[in-house]
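Q: Is it fine to ask for two folds in a single conversation?
A: Yes, each is treated on its own. Send the first.
Q: Here.
A: Result:
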Amino acid sequence: MASPIAVYSLSDLKNTTDDALPNYLTSLDFRQSHFLTDVRLALGYSAVIVAGVTFAFDYKLGWDETKEYTYWAVIAYFLLNGALTFWIWFAEKGKIFQGETQNGTLLTIASRVTKHNPKYQLVIRWTDPTTSEPFDWETRELTAPFTTWFSSDGQFIAEPFQQWLSSEIPAIAAADGAGSRKRTEKGRARSELPSTMMQSKGPAIHVNSRKGKK
């Protein structure tokens, strides 16, 4: 069981819920895209590398030898940081999940909270692959109090959170239904396995008898 969090900390409530949402969706039929995160990391690390290399050259060769290169390195550093800031605010825009299902449904989810308001706010966009317009996005905004899936002592309870999402978003409901059928079929197969083994002859019965002795 995960450690409880401070129920009066909006950032802890949001971050814990943000982490749980992709875990739930990837357990269904959704394949998560990490493109936004990859670009953010590439820009951030590039800026760090430029700063590190500039410092190393300045330390080894001195200011007189490197001042011309330092000038361009400073420009590159600020351009990279500017691009990173633009990417976070205008490309990611609070997105915590971006992915698709095997049947072609695209899904993006952004989350936010407002100060002194203990409610989780989502902006969800998805496509319906059965329509004639492949990139005709549907958008829905959802709001729910954190107390819906957090206990009074700060424990996150996954089931009500997952039910809230699947009951509000058709794309998630369809994937959750498919996942439930798969889990049911696997459970039925496991439950039928002992009876099949008991009906068979030879080694299968012998294996069961050894387990009984243990």
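Q: Second one now.
A: Result:
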Amino acid sequence: MAVQSTPRKPQDSLRSAVLRLLRTFNRQSKRARLIATVALTLAVISSGWGGHQLLKRRSEDKAQGRRLLRRNSGLRGKDGSRTIFVPYRNSTAKVVIYPTKPTSFDAHRRLFLNPPRAAGLSDGQPALQVPPPNTKPGLNIAFLHQFLSLLSIMIPHWNSKESGLLLSQGVFLLLRTYLSLVVTRLDGEIVRDLVAGNGRGFLWGLVKWCGIGGFASYTNAAIKFLQSKVSIAFRTRLTRYIHDLYLNDNLNYYKVLNLDGGIGQGIDQYICNDLTLFTNSAASLYSSIGKPLVDLCVFNYQLFRSLGPLGCTGLLANYIITATALRRLSPPFGKLKAVENRREGDFRLLHSKLITNAEEVAFYGGADIEKVFLDASFKDLTTWMEGIYRLKIRYNMLEDFVVKYSWSAFGYLITSLPVFLPEWSGLGNTPEPAFPSSSSPSLNPQHTRMQSFITNKRLMLSLADAGSRMMYSLKDLSELAGHTSRVYSLI
């Protein structure tokens, strides 16, 4: 007679762990058990006391924040820092503003007042105006030196808040590239199941498409949010640095208004407008160049697996030729943008002077003369902006035709290599799909070819989009060079 087995009750993992811990504790000596008991008691007491002190300190900070918020004041620390409380939701938030150290100004002096000769901003001798008037804003060594100098202020060290934001943004950018690859593969599978009449596979593909679409939408929103946070962090760093540099006991703000011939009277234009444009352009530079560059590498590798070395070589040659041609035919947007910002500052300066001297203008009847000056300045500004727009129209026509239509036609030609000329593509008679799938076995060769074509087409479109963003980023870099030159001249 067979022995009947009694089912065992599943043991709780937490209970078994506690029992093992108690058995281990009982096997120890009496002295060791006493020491462990005292240590555990002290740990519980100290953690409870520390938690109580933390809650007490937080309640005191909230009470102090409400009191100082009503008085619109803050606290000054011994190290020169200032603690202010700002409204946040239904309570207050504590913000500590640390002043720029004098050693930081001394370290940055060689970058802004005595730049190296290789940067093209000086001839090795101390200059009265840096950068000199003959330095043209553009994509050159001078722009690289200016941008890196400002970057040392915006990101002071590797463990700063800005570094964490850039790292988080980089993770989301890589995740967006991976999702693009998944969507590309899924697009080919949906079309394959549709052509093959596989209703169950088609509906399951739509479900996966909607799920991935929601996650991709969140990723795109997170990228834009982090870009805005990076822009605000960069602007906060530079604004506080400039305030500490000019609003001090050395009367630098008075000197730059009355004695500095390089900046003149438009310092408010530099701080309020040019600084904002520079930080926005610098924050978008990470995503407008970094992500397309990663996309180019990843998509080129996937197309190399699908189209072979000949197709990949043709794509790279097409990118190099078009990028070189567009770079040579591109107008100097950096110089044009710098002049536009300067004329915007002159027009704003005339209004500031009119507001400051409104009483004298009204007393002496100088409204007509001031109107002539304002109209002339505004006409110069609008004429210059219209000239820039005319240049942009011609360049955008050429850029859109090359990037969108000529690249698409060339992409269709490349994707047809595995179909019409399989021996030229280097893959034999059976083209290897970029994403091999085993979800639908024993498919018709025509269906597999359709899947490969749709997948390669989607890869080509994504690759063309990444290449077009790289081309557009050259224009953004030129405008960034103009903003960089203005902010560098201010500091």
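Q: Anything structural to flag on that second result?
A: Two points. Residues 426-442 have pLDDT under 50 and may be disordered. The first helix runs from residue 13 to 26.
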